[in-house]
Amino acid sequence: MLSRYRFLSSYVSPKARAIVFEKYGNPKDVLRAYTHELPPLTPTTLHIRFLASPINPADINQIEGVYPAKPTFTKELGILPDGEHKELAVGGNEGVAEIIAVGEQIKDLNVGDWVIMGRSGFGTWRTHAATTPNDVIRFNNKEIGLIQAATLSVNPCTAYRMLKDFVTLKKGDFMIQCGANSSVGQSVIQIAKAWGINTINIVRDRPDIENLKTHLKSLGATHIITDRELRNYKTKGLIKEWTGGNIIKLGLNCVGGEVATEMAKFLGQNGTHVTYGAMSRQPFFVPASHLIFKDIKFLGFWMSRWNKTHSREEKGEMLNEVIKLMKFKKESPADIAFEEVLWGNQSESDESLKNKFLSALDKSGAGFHGKKQILKMQS
Ligand SMILES: NC(=O)c1ccc[n+]([C@@H]2O[C@H](COP(=O)([O-])OP(=O)(O)OC[C@H]3O[C@@H](n4cnc5c(N)ncnc54)[C@H](OP(=O)(O)O)[C@@H]3O)[C@@H](O)[C@H]2O)c1
């Protein structure tokens, strides 16, 4: 309990367990589990204890070195067991942490506050970190459960910004999205529902499609259609029936390839097609007629860019608004499908922690798996 109090001379820095890499490459080849002491608390630093951190698709691209937001490589993590003092980066970009110790000159943060990271590339796949107030954003955790908080800063915020910043959507308007069962897609459904916006949700067909449809409906999805059904010649009429002839103003795409092209066909005059991911790793083509006759705008969104150009205060306000909109309930574990991976136990070997992590990473990369992998820290 000592560490729960503001700075105490008897406070002992905890040992941190982390998933680190020293060079870019295939995650299986370059990731390792690493145990190190946290640097001592100073009057201007904080010690935080991570509670839960998800594995997101962009984290993998970042380790591969193909993601524009780079991780922080630093020698501050200490010396490797083989005696080499290398620059290491901690993987992961999202997660929730609790402040466990506060330097005596810091007045606006307290032990017990819940925070998320204020920048990407901080490294969240770890049990503990030493940091500064500038790197964290405190939020109101009264109404939110652990898993919801751990997955709050990237996907729900991306959904919120895309529904708000590109076109003005009024109650009763229609939007369409592919990859609708992604975590972002599920947040889009929930926020749109709160605003009274109708969603047409495209998912890949699968044997248990009815279960998926039931789940998305329970979140507030208005209509759900598979990518196979979308290609059917009758679909145009069906969607017209759904919208009552109203135009679809916004399309959100995290898949690319054929479905991104197909989805564009359903946008109305002056519609906006926003790409924020490329899960199929396929490019998509844009027929000239969409540009010439319908004046459809093809744009992109990147949350990291928004974070860079907006203040910590603006981000804090957005988080609190998203929490209200998503109607999180502290007692319900999460609104997205997820699998908890208990991780970071102080008595577990680095080898065992690495293997546990890699097995979660495998599942997170498998298509049709449908469950976000979330490290729940056991420290
Ligand atoms: N631009 C930004 O700021 C931003 C922010 C957040 C996320 N993203 C991006 O958004 C995307 C979704 O992220 P997330 O965390 O929400 O993902 P997630 O929860 O892990 O879900 C992955 C989604 O991708 C689909 N998928 C996987 N492999 C696919 C393939 N080969 N072809 C077609 N669909 C495939 C899955 O559908 P199945 O169930 O059919 O496999 C599922 O809908 C990622 O590309 C991520 O990088 C971008």
Automatic annotation (TrEMBL):
Stretches assigned to the Enoyl reductase (ER) domain: 26-342
Keyword field: Fatty acid biosynthesis, Fatty acid metabolism, Lipid biosynthesis, Lipid metabolism, Mitochondrion, NADP, Oxidoreductase, Transit peptide
Primary subcellular site in the record, as a coarse category: mitochondrion
EC number(s) on file: 1.3.1.104
InterPro entries the record matches: ADH-like_C (IPR013149), ADH-like_N (IPR013154), ER (IPR020843), GroES-like_sf (IPR011032), Mito_Enoyl-ACP_Reductase (IPR051034), NAD(P)-bd_dom_sf (IPR036291)
Single GO BP term: fatty acid biosynthetic process
A GO molecular function held by the record: enoyl-[acyl-carrier-protein] reductase (NADPH) activity
Broad class of enzyme this protein falls into: oxidoreductase
Protein name per its UniProtKB record: enoyl-[acyl-carrier-protein] reductase
